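Hi W., the cytidine-5'-diphosphate complex you wanted:
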Amino acid sequence: MSTPIVVAIDGPAGSGKSSVSKAAARKLDFAYLDTGAAYRAVAWHVLNTGTNPEDEQAVIDSLEEFGYDIGTDPDNYYVKVNEIDITEAIREVRITDVVSKVAKIPVVRQYLGDLFRHIMASTTKPGIIAEGRDITTVVAPDAPARILLTASEEARMARRSAELPQQSQDQTASALRARDAADSRVSDFMTAADGVVTVDSTDFSYEQTIDAVVEVIRSRTS
Ligand code: CDP
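Structure:
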């Protein structure tokens, strides 16, 4: 079996990276890896086991019982921990509110980074698109195609607000700003590293963004 082509996509919250990466994977018949889901799953596991997310050692210890499973087929996406399906639960605001706390712990990042590299290497598809915050820089810096997907703050807030009708626009905007600020202390996902192609989706429709991303992938991997 030949080594799968790895495509790395990073970007801030609301840039559309999850839906765009999934759609691009479908077009190319590639696998899709949502790395943010793993950080969210750790946050879910921490809360589910009554672990204090502020207690770094307790969070690290909780990884011993973290049986993680994620679907990498863009048409069969699921997230499980210890066989419990948490695909929907990890999107809850209570998870979003604590995820940055667990994501800043270096041992957690190392642990999940190793897991991502393992998942990427073992895909049976011709390639895999992995998206997150540090994929272009830390997890897969040697990937042949690396993309930073950005959008203006206004566009990102508007998109996230549309996904979360139960929250006011102000609540969504301030939570997003706070999370971006916390996350950017850990990874720089606002500026493209050397060799990383920026796709700015501010004035693009969803379809145009997918096409732009697929075009970069094709040009870098053919
Ligand atoms: O979709 P959204 O951008 O809201 O978030 P996500 O991709 O589901 O990621 C959730 C959280 O996981 C982020 O806020 C980061 O704290 C963390 N994360 C990370 O630290 N590194 C990654 N490669 C991916 C996510």
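The first strand starts at residue 5 and ends at 10.

W.
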